[in-house]
Amino acid sequence: MAALSSTHCRSYSPLQSSSFGPSSSSSSSSSSSNLGHFQRVSVSSVPKRFLAAKVYSLQSQTKSVARMQDGAVASTITPIENETPFKKLKDGLLSVPSPDECKDAVGFGINENDSTVSITVVGASGDLAKKKIFPALFALYYEDCLPKHFTVCGYARSKMTDAELRNMVSKTLTCRIDKRENCSEKMEQFLRRCFYHSGQYDSQENFAELDKKLKEHEGGRVSNRLFYLSIPPNIFIDAVRCASSSASSGNGWTRVIVEKPFGRDSESSAALTKGLKQYLKEDQIFRIDHYLGKELVENLSVLRFSNLIFEPLWSRQYIRNVQLIFSEDFGTEGRGGYFDNYGIIRDIMQNHLLQILALFAMETPVSLDAEDIRNEKVKVLRSMRPLQLENVVTGQYKSHTKGGVTYPAYTDDKTVPKDSLTPTFAAAALFIDNARWDGVPFLMKAGKALHTKRAEIRVQFRHVPGNLYNRNFGTDLDRATNELVIRVQPDEAIYLKINNKVPGLGMRLDRSNLNLHYAARYSKEIPDAYERLLLDAVEGERRLFIRSDELDAAWSLFTPLLKELEEKKIIPEYYPHGSRGPVGAHYLAARYKVRWGDVGVDQ
Amino acid sequence: MARHLNPCSSSSYSSSTTFTPSSFKNGTHLSSRFIIVPRKPHSSSWVSLIHPRIRARNHFQLKSSNGHPLNAVSLQDGTAGSPLAKKHIEPRGKKGSLPFSELDNVESHLSITIVGASGDLAKKKIFPALFALYYEDCLPKNFIVFGYARTKMTDEELRNMISRTLTCRIDKRENCEDKMDHFLKRCFYHSGLYDSEEHFVELNSKLKEREAGKLSNRLFYLSIPPNIFVDVARCASLGASSENGWTRVIVEKPFGRDSKSSGELTRCLKQYLAEDQIFRIDHYLGKELVENLSVLRFANLIFEPLWSRNCIRNVQLIFSEDFGTEGRGGYFDSYGIIRDIMQNHLLQILALFAMESPVSLDAEDIRNEKVKVLRSMRPLQLEDVVVGQYKGHSKGGKSYPAYTDDPTVPNDSLTPTFAAAALFINNARWDGVPFLMKAGKAIHTKRAEIRVQFRHVPGNLYKRNFGTDLDKATNELVLRVQPDEAIYLKINNKVPGLGMRLDRSDLNLLYRARYPREIPDAYERLLLDAIEGERRLFIRSDELDAAWALFTPLLNELEEKKIVPELYPHGSRGPVGAHYLAAKHNVRWGDLSGEDS
Q: Rounded CA gap, A145 and A117, in Å?
């Protein structure tokens, strides 16, 4: 298949209207349903850039009636598709837009030449901005995925010149694959579009100055503005207030990307949402969960919904348990101040792992539109039992000396209180009380300072009923079940453990893997999650962002447990830095008669 | 999991068949199966006291009486046979690589007689397979190999002839030379006519000499033309049967050329042999991946739910050779590809693929299920068959001959060297699912594979990503039997990157990468099974009858109507008619889709 050749940017992606500022849309629900509709029309194998012009004109006229005309609208599109010179698109799978096609890919304005996007990174001097956001923006630029007119503006309190910012940014820029052509040229061009504005996060005046600067760069074009809040949560609202009231786009859209933490429990999260909504509509808020931007998490739905062989297995009838595993092989390393206030459950489980769980377990959505998918995810979250203390094991790493090297304990971190009970490890069993998943444990495990770094999804299937080959397995039937493993990082892979006959004259069975190793199959480097998510935000694709009601539902599952842990001052089980985590996790799994797939003899 | 291989069968639920044809019809042996319960190691010695020859194997002999009405057998299967069966396997597996432990076998002796020892098959397959078994310590302690043919030859000459083809599977393994010498020392030759009882009596006395009074078990491998099968069976049975052990006869295809001749052959063989003495070999059933087919299906939860018309759109059984008859078309011309490959190899794989879950893995249970599949099938219709014959072709200055250029083939031969067929199983599981078979000589590639094409995803959310050709987006499970054994499952996957583009990727299991050891040849497995009395991979008479019943009307029609085969160039992908046949059933050949080879 020709699929290896790359398309850098979207070959689908909803046409996005949303050209209203905070004041222009009377009801966000109606606007989002319209959005949903248009996305459905336009999500097609035909890259939207071929459709953009015609569909957009169509869109503005039929907006109000569009929902009923789905079929009609769609079919008017078909001829357009056929008229395109890109006949090869009809091969569907093989559609391979060249980089040139990608150039004008991001048609999110009615007329490209007249629209512009200004991306403001609020908190530009921070770590995340330097390490992730600017590099991701550059990668998108390098891949020709950003619109023709765009500017990147850093905003922070430090005094800095544009040149200083560019200097800072340039230090972290790399072309994904080093030896690609024009890299330094592209870098130059990118840096020329980067500017800096110094200001207070709570000063409307300073944001008004920013607005002025942005307007200059926009040069009278339709202005779309994206704010990336890479700042501590306590100043989220201030920044949003100022940005919204003083630096919103006058004639285009204004969107705000917010990073976790989204509160620390139901109440604080709700307060944050309420605060944000004073200044922003739901569809302007892009709550980022970068795990949802990971390639294999994206692929989870593809795997399930575009292959016949998986969906029949996707229920309690065949799946015995699902495991969501996250581990880091390092501790807080002097930066435990923020972490200590949150702990691993808030930092990893309540968001990243729970989001993956919801995506994994949801019913088939009506379509791939953001609202349809998020509707299904909320349903999963709302069908779940709140976590019980007895279904949770917490741990904290202690120091450990190995080979002459001493690894510090969590409480050795200077930014962490000596008597901190904050868990750096947690394992939990969750249950979804719906028809599909009743009784199937969803095991989560997340930890810092473990022996390995990984993130994976493991689906363990049930035993074969009345297995003819029982006698070939010995007594441990658990070793003979099938398992589907989706390794999110590092070294992306999908593999399915099957029982297979060991070649030879006897009849001995073992577990072998049906393998898909990304590094071997796909020669291209996999884009960073932030690239995908930033592009989505620019394009108004909300599928991978967390809606307010999702967030509420997620917190309501974890808040009672978190309260109880803190009130009862539950002492975490200590585990050595660099170990496999507390043994309590095994007992938790054993309680539900399952085993962790990642710490078995064969993984 | 453990990857160390046990070189010998740990699975064979072998049976004994300690009776000669004459003893077959009485039921006395029934009792012996209750004797053996060798759950603990020590019990085997206890067993051997009673029944000195074979340890732990005898209790299956009830099964072997399928020459007897099956109903009598199967009634007892469920009650006594299978629970015992399950138990006795374990000790054998654990004991490791010597199924014939000293205690049990001192007194028994195995004589393997290759009738037609100077033939090609014997040289290329049988002797090497026997040596491989010997090398792996899978043969009993006392055994000899006898070559029998018309040619005059000394033992030494036979040994010379054999030694040229012997190789240690993996060249650099130790003691290879030693082992070869030891093996050759056990090889002997006896010259005689195939239809002379006298000569077989001479053989008998030679065998007796070597057996030196031990319990004698005799295996005859008939590697001879079919027209003398019955003669040899008669002479061997009357003149050289074992008196106190078992006598088994391995027969190679062709088993007749239609229902009538096959029925006749079976009838004649049965004059001299009981059903459980006849081992009809189909070496495809000994292939590693064909063996693995049942494992894949019955030892994994994830496949069985998919294994029906609900999820499977069609199944393809594909065989091709990249060479023609090359001067040896004489035999082939009177059979043709349908008889040579389809009616036996491919149909057997089909039956194994499609059968219901058997009661156990015992030979009779599996073969019962296979017969049920065959009997549920519609006989082939002419309109569901495409036949072809290769014609000459010049490529790069080199010219490849046509089938009829073969001097051993009549110039006006209509014998198909290629055939494609659509078969249907009219049962609840498979109603409406086409089973496509394709077999050909002088095709561009050499391969044998099973392809399971799944249905479309109903209401596929991603269908816009697939364009108009939804056939390119279905899942497919491929078992590549040869060459380069592999299992892979084609899945739709997101191409990594910022867009949402899907492609088909493979979930792969390449045997070469996963299992470093060489895979034994099918003949090794089958010979060992015959020695151990494991009949699972051999074809029972009723299976054979059912198989012929499906193909005979078609074959007759082809010949009566003198259907002219579609000519295809030597080295091509076969006649295009095969595509139209598939298209008629709304499917595509998986091997010609251009995306994999």
A: 12
pLDDT at A51 over 60: no
Note the pLDDT tens digit of each residue in A397-438.
Answer: 999 998 889 999 999 999 999 999 999 999 999 999 999 999
Q: How far apart are the first and last CA of chain B?
A: 31
With tokens 């390995």, the residue in question is A452
Of A3, A494, A500, the CB nearest to B495: A3
Task: Give the residue carrying structure tokens 């009723």.
Answer: B542
Residue A108 CA to residue A224 CA, distance in Å, equals: 9
Whether the Cβ atoms of residue A285 and residue A259 lie closer than 8 Å to each other: no
pLDDT value of residue B137: 87
CA distance B461 to chain A (A): 6
Q: Provide the total of helices (H) and of strands (E) in chain B, helices listed first.
A: 22, 18
Q: What is the pLDDT of residue B403?
A: 94
How many angstroms away from the CA of B468 is the closest CA of chain A?
A: 7
Please indicate if any CB of chain A lies within 8 Å of the CB of B95.
Answer: no
User: Tokens at residue A410, please?
Assistant: 């969590």
The C-alpha atoms of residue B370 and residue A400 are separated, in whole angstroms, by 61
Out of A8, A494, A503, name the one closest to residue B515 (CB): A503
Tokens found for residue B385: 């068959």
Helix axes A370-382, A28-42, angle to 10 degrees: 120
Contacting residues for A41 by C-beta, under 8 A, at least 6 apart: A15, A55, A66, A70, A73, A74, A77
B83 Cα distance to chain centroid:
27
DSSP state, residue A568: T
Q: Do A496 and B89 touch (CB under 8 A)?
A: no
A88 contacts in chain B (CB < 8 Å): none
Of A193, A54, A173, whose CA–CA distance to A117 is shortest? A193
Residues of chain B with pLDDT under 70: 1-106, 168-173, 467-471, 593-597
Task: Tell how many helices (H) and how many strands (E) occur in chain A.
Answer: 19, 18
pTM: 0.79
Which residues, other chains included, contact A198 with Cβ-Cβ below 8 Å and sequence gap of 6+? Answer: A155, A156, A157, A158, A159, A160, A206
A371: helix, coil or strand? helix
Give the residue, A116 or B44, on which the prediction is more confident: A116
Share of chain A above pLDDT 90, in %: 52
- Which tokens go with A71? 């079929």
Residue A239: alpha-carbon gap to chain centroid: 23
Contact with chain A for residue B261, Cβ under 8 A = no
Cβ contacts of residue A99 below 8 Å, gap of 6+? A8, A143, A144
Asked if B283 is an active-site residue, the reply is no
User: How far apart (Å, rounded) are the C-alpha atoms in residues B571 and B568?
Assistant: 8
> Which residues are within 8 A (CB) of A545 and not within 5 positions of it... i.e. 6 or more apart?
A285, A286, A287, A288, A289, A292, A370, A533, A536, A537
CA dist list (Å): B246 to A148, B117, B140, B143, B274: 86, 22, 14, 14, 11
Q: What residue type is B498 in one-letter code?
A: L
Which ipTM value was assigned to this complex?
Answer: 0.74
> Among A6, A47, A515, whose Cβ lies nearest the Cβ of B497?
A6
CB < 8 Å from A in window 304-323 of B: 304-306, 311
Separation of alpha carbons A590 and A603, rounded Å: 18
Q: For strand B566-569 and strand B385-391, is the pairing parallel, antiparallel, or unpaired?
A: parallel
Burial class (CB within 10 angstroms; exposed 0-12, middle 13-18, buried 19+) of A434: middle
For residue A29, pLDDT over 90 is answered with no
